[in-house]
Amino acid sequence: MDDEELLARRMHAQFGRPDPATAEVARTSGGVQAQDGPAARLALRARGVADPAGPARAAAAGDVVTLALMRGTLHLVPAADARWLLGLFATRNLAAGARRRRELGLTDEVCARALDLLPGLLDVPRSRAALIGLLNARGLGVDPKGQAPAHLIGYASAHGVLCRGADLGAREPGYVPLPAGGPAPADPAAELAGRYLAAFGPAGPGDFAAWAGLPVSEARRAVEAAAPEEASPGLFAAAGSPEPPAGGPAVRLLGAYDGYLLGYRSREVMLAEPYARRINAGGGVIRPAVVADGRIVGTWRREGAEPVVEPFGPLPRGVRAALADEVAAVAAYLQGRRPALRSAGTRQRGDNRA
Description:
- The chain is an alpha+beta fold.
- Helix content is about 40%, strand content about 15%.
- The protein has 3 domains: about 30-175, no CATH class; about 190-235; about 245-335, no CATH class.
- The strands form 4 sheets. A 4-stranded antiparallel β-sheet has the order 8-9-10-11. A 3-stranded antiparallel β-sheet has the order 1-3-2, sandwiched between helices.
């Protein structure tokens, strides 16, 4: 398999299955990166959720929730899957944050008291500040201005007490009780590996380990248990993965921290080294990107409701035409209108002429 075929298959796996249901896209994507709310909505749009109101409606209905899961970062997942996914990652994430909690004065006693009090404070969706205010009114004594509130709420989330539901306002998450959810799969790690390979494959166990934040040995076992198809030596795809259709070129504008850029051990195949720092200049920041046929070909920014693209260099004629359609679709989405979304097929020879 050459790089062109690999990227075409990955592009189709990520963006080639439009579905109007936010929860279904979250499920088939293995979770949607969600530490930035507007970027998460753009990620859902790129994967088929054309209705700008769809994500908020799904959160308000309780169909999706947001939790710290893979790599300890926030992901939007179906409410039905939240508890078994939390079971995979909570212990690891709690251990990773233990030292910082101690530094912030969040002793075991303070955290235990918060776990006792919080269920009685979630009769309605509440902001983090409101929850900390109510806890302090009951004598908890948490500094409301530093990082302690975020770490305390994260601790409670990892214990299955609460999660993010619908936003209460612009960039103001609302916290609600974690839903009961559905039954856990017999092998949760294998279930997640199967979803990962369906959304990111062809990929290897090392890629799954990097995306999930799991030890490579555990990731390798999970991938084997998922019974994937070997697409190329060391690279696997979900069994029965469809071939990308002819057509294209396929172009998407991706928001910050998009899962496509965080889903593999290396970005080398998709992002040429001279441009890597224009996407990730350091500090963990992943800038919005333009992807064409699986390759990152530029960045973009928002000016009002208009996307402004900054390509890395001259783009072939076919990519320019598809990019113009995508820019118009994203502009409509940002203005609250429901645009059409072209399928993410592969390009035919001749479609990318300069």
